[in-house]
């Protein structure tokens, strides 16, 4: 038997870091929402009690370093399943981009295996398992739009933002999340108004959402990688209503509501950035 599961990317409409915790993690408060750029995760039963990762992307590990592999292994251990699975991952979300591609693949694996193996676990139970794999996995289990706190694993669902286009541009560089956090000077940064963003989303106020979008990690990444700052600036110049880095970068996203503006921004960015995508906000939660 086989099952196909979509694994959508996320963007951060607001991302704040509050302080460093005694356990070494940073306490965050952020607003995340899913977008219509998704990997395809296909799950296939195996006769042997093994986990196989199949991917034709050379940047995707095919062993226990892969978060989808870790998800399958942990789920098997938690529920005592002795069945094998082949996990085929077709990548559409760029790798190491600040869009939670690996975390979403892991979340899709948890949701899919729950169905494939008839486990009957709730999304809350799957999210709890996902939290052991990575901070973004619980959000990706639910999808939709949410406030994430703690190290990102505590999820409070909120309504979807108003419909809009999302333009994504990823420079051909890698950004180390650990290095970005290491260089973050919390006492000297402007903290975004996360609560204001939540209120704007609840009010479906697109202009206020654009005005309040903020990411505290930009203060580090834009200094370390001038290419990211350049894309952010060009995106606004071409007509995006807002441009913001997602996660720790390097992907920058812009929001536009009108198709004519979308084409202008998209075509402008294609001129000097190889990886450019135009997709819709989804913002709605996964079904059980």
Automatic annotation (TrEMBL):
<protein>
    <recommendedName>
        <fullName>4-diphosphocytidyl-2-C-methyl-D-erythritol kinase</fullName>
        <ecNumber>2.7.1.148</ecNumber>
    </recommendedName>
</protein>
<dbReference type="GO" id="GO:0016114">
    <property type="term" value="P:terpenoid biosynthetic process"/>
</dbReference>
<feature type="domain" description="GHMP kinase N-terminal">
    <location>
        <begin position="66"/>
        <end position="144"/>
    </location>
</feature>
<dbReference type="GO" id="GO:0019288">
    <property type="term" value="P:isopentenyl diphosphate biosynthetic process, methylerythritol 4-phosphate pathway"/>
</dbReference>
<dbReference type="InterPro" id="IPR014721">
    <property type="entry name" value="Ribsml_uS5_D2-typ_fold_subgr"/>
</dbReference>
<dbReference type="Pfam" id="PF00288">
    <property type="entry name" value="GHMP_kinases_N"/>
</dbReference>
<keyword id="KW-0547">Nucleotide-binding</keyword>
<feature type="binding site">
    <location>
        <begin position="94"/>
        <end position="104"/>
    </location>
    <ligand>
        <name>ATP</name>
    </ligand>
</feature>
<keyword id="KW-0808">Transferase</keyword>
<keyword id="KW-0418">Kinase</keyword>
<dbReference type="InterPro" id="IPR006204">
    <property type="entry name" value="GHMP_kinase_N_dom"/>
</dbReference>
<dbReference type="Pfam" id="PF08544">
    <property type="entry name" value="GHMP_kinases_C"/>
</dbReference>
<feature type="active site">
    <location>
        <position position="136"/>
    </location>
</feature>
<dbReference type="InterPro" id="IPR036554">
    <property type="entry name" value="GHMP_kinase_C_sf"/>
</dbReference>
<feature type="active site">
    <location>
        <position position="10"/>
    </location>
</feature>
<keyword id="KW-0067">ATP-binding</keyword>
<dbReference type="InterPro" id="IPR020568">
    <property type="entry name" value="Ribosomal_Su5_D2-typ_SF"/>
</dbReference>
<comment type="pathway">
    <text>Isoprenoid biosynthesis; isopentenyl diphosphate biosynthesis via DXP pathway; isopentenyl diphosphate from 1-deoxy-D-xylulose 5-phosphate: step 3/6.</text>
</comment>
<feature type="domain" description="GHMP kinase C-terminal">
    <location>
        <begin position="197"/>
        <end position="274"/>
    </location>
</feature>
<dbReference type="InterPro" id="IPR013750">
    <property type="entry name" value="GHMP_kinase_C_dom"/>
</dbReference>
<dbReference type="GO" id="GO:0050515">
    <property type="term" value="F:4-(cytidine 5'-diphospho)-2-C-methyl-D-erythritol kinase activity"/>
</dbReference>
<comment type="similarity">
    <text>Belongs to the GHMP kinase family. IspE subfamily.</text>
</comment>
<keyword id="KW-0414">Isoprene biosynthesis</keyword>
<comment type="function">
    <text>Catalyzes the phosphorylation of the position 2 hydroxy group of 4-diphosphocytidyl-2C-methyl-D-erythritol.</text>
</comment>
<dbReference type="GO" id="GO:0005524">
    <property type="term" value="F:ATP binding"/>
</dbReference>
<dbReference type="InterPro" id="IPR004424">
    <property type="entry name" value="IspE"/>
</dbReference>
